[in-house]
Design a protein that fits this description.
The protein has ten helices and eight strands. The chain has helices at about 1-20, 75-80, 125-155, 165-170, 185-205, 225-230, 240-265, 275-285, 335-350, 360-365; strands at about 25-30, 105, 160, 210-215, 270, 290-295, 325-330, 355. Strands 2-1-3-4-5-8 form a six-stranded mixed β-sheet. The longest helix is centred in the middle third of the chain and has 30 residues, at about 125-155. It is globular, with a radius of gyration of 21 Å. Mean pLDDT is about 90; it is low at about 1-20.
């Protein structure tokens, strides 16, 4: 009898430890938040070689699969909230068992909301499949905590989704010979993306998610890659690209508002406006301490846009001297310096940036 009582006490303490880990994050999305999942795939979309990760302190400057020189926005957020570690990639062999309680990163570089997005890179994990992977994680949590314990645990978890950029980039770039497809209208693409993303959010909700952070698509018309393919002069962004993105973001915001109306107050969906943050940085870059807003720190701003470090200077990509002075790390992704600004505004911004509450408030939000 005493042994049985001791087992019950241990189980209660175990569940309590899980349910009180208030800053747990499950992360979904693309290369903006990928923490190394693509390292375990057969894909052309990898960040597993120097100089990627050159400023990532935990790895002592070695690449971790993050598509930037240091931390991603999600890394900075969880660290600011007091976490001592970052949610590990789902595909890493060590992401098992109790490790799940500190969160998991399911994001995959080159992936999108739509299954076919990024197919040219071979393997990647589309958003739908990422949600399937979370379903596996949930089953493992249930095996340890039971359904009731899992329900209590997931009440405190923040589900963060950063996806859509690659879907729009695929639409914007020139058709590839032999793979040419007739493009749908911009409005149809936007509607299809929003309906698919909303479907995946509802799946997470049905599996117990109650706190959601949904990040919109930034001004892709200003990234070095799009500036190059659209032949934009220095200091200019592609208005065609940015109009497409703004139309999508407006529809996404409307869908998030509808979800809050229909599923609240037991559930909260936070919309994060990365578009205006990044445009603000680009327009007032010197105010933020940047000196270059057009070119990437690593690699060229014309095809093939490669960023790598070879055995000698003659076979390495050009690398800027001061990474903190550049908005863009490579042709697609921000530097850690830019990510710090974005993350800070997500954490503490007003309703023009994050609504209905900011990210700091979201993690501490008490649902009914």
């Amino acid at each position: 009898m005493l042994i049985i009582m001791a087992d019950i006490v241990i189980l209660i303490l175990f569940i309590h430890a899980w349910s009180c880990f208030c800053y747990t994050s499950f992360l979904f999305g693309d290369s903006l938040v990928d923490a190394g999942n693509n390292d375990y795939l057969i894909t052309l979309s990898k960040a597993d070689s120097p100089p990627y990760g050159i400023d990532f302190i935990p790895s002592k400057g070695q690449p971790t699969g993050r598509f930037t020189n240091g931390r991603t926005v999600s890394d900075i957020i969880v660290q600011a909230l007091g976490s001592k570690s970052f949610p590990p990639p789902f595909l890493a062999p060590t992401t098992r068992g109790k490790a799940i309680r500190e969160g998991v990163n399911y994001a995959s570089g080159s992936s999108g909301i739509l299954d076919k997005t990024g197919s040219i890179f071979v393997e990647r994990v589309p958003l739908r499949k990422q949600i399937n992977d979370f379903e596996q994680s949930r089953a493992k949590i249930v095996s340890m905590l039971g359904e009731n314990g899992t329900t209590e645990f997931l009440k405190q978890v923040v589900f963060s989704i950063t996806s859509g950029s690659n879907d729009l980039l695929n639409y914007l770039q020139p058709s590839i010979p032999f793979f040419k497809e007739d493009k749908v209208s911009p409005a149809m693409l936007q509607d299809f993306m929003v309906s698919n993303l909303t479907l995946q959010l509802k799946r997470l909700y049905e599996m117990g998610g109650q706190k959601f952070l949904v990040i919109d698509v930034g001004p892709l018309g200003c990234i070095p890659f799009v500036r190059a393919i659209k032949l934009m002069p220095a200091g200019r962004c592609s208005s065609e690209a940015n109009e497409l993105i703004q139309g999508y973001n407006r529809k996404l915001k409307k869908s998030i508002d509808t979800l809050n109306k229909n599923l609240g107050p037991e559930t909260i969906f936070v919309y994060a406006n990365s578009y205006d943050i990044v445009m603000g940085i680009i327009k007032r870059y010197r105010k933020y301490g940047f000196e270059n807003v057009d070119k990437p720190c690593c690699g060229g701003n014309f095809p093939p846009f490669t960023c790598f470090k070879g055995g000698g200077a003659n076979i390495s990509s050009v690398l800027c001297e001061d990474r903190s002075k550049y908005v863009f790390w490579d042709a697609y992704h921000p530097t850690e310096a830019a990510n710090l600004i974005i993350a800070n505004k997500f954490l503490y911004g007003d309703e023009s940036i994050v609504s209905p509450v900011n990210v700091h408030e979201l993690y501490n939000y008490n649902l009914p």
